[in-house]
Amino acid sequence: MYLIDSNIFIEAKNRYYAFDLVPSFWTFLDSAFAGTDVRSIDMVYAELANGTDELADWVKARQSSSVFLDVSDTATQGVYGTIVNALNASTNYKSPGIAHFLSGADPWIVAKAKVINATVVTHELYDPACKKRVPLGNVCHDQGVPFINTFDFLRTRGITF
Fold first, then answer.
1. CA pair distance 96, 119, nearest whole angstrom
2. What pLDDT, on the 0 to 100 scale, is given for residue 65?
3. Mean pLDDT of 136-161
4. Are 69 and 30 in contact (CB under 8 A)?
5. Distances in Å between the alpha carbon of 116 and those of 53, 69, 70, 119, 158?
6. 77 vs 14, 108, 119, 126, CA distance in Å?
């Protein structure tokens, strides 16, 4: 199972797989979402649908599908609480960085991934030296949640364009 982070969609739209340059990337995502092992979460939906661009339109067109998993279940809420407690108890990060991390979808995607044994697909890396912000890769690492980038995700799926 794979859960796709916001930055995968954003980077794809803005750089590597722009809608007008590589429409087959977006077709691939729709095909992957039609199966049962590639999803995202409702918090990612909220972040992306808030925009006014082609990506927001694309995401909104998929709102009623099963693409964006709910994070309000008890198990996900419990893991989210564990993440919050661990970050608040940590001396590794500055308070503004923790607050910023907790204000978005990142802690939720890690929590959901841990609950459903999924791999997070993200462009963020593991950076143990980072102190100002909380990298998603660090929280994945600390929670024992595997994570990969877009290119490795595409390779695991055998996708070429």
1. 27
2. 79
3. 95
4. no
5. 31, 11, 12, 9, 23
6. 32, 8, 18, 24
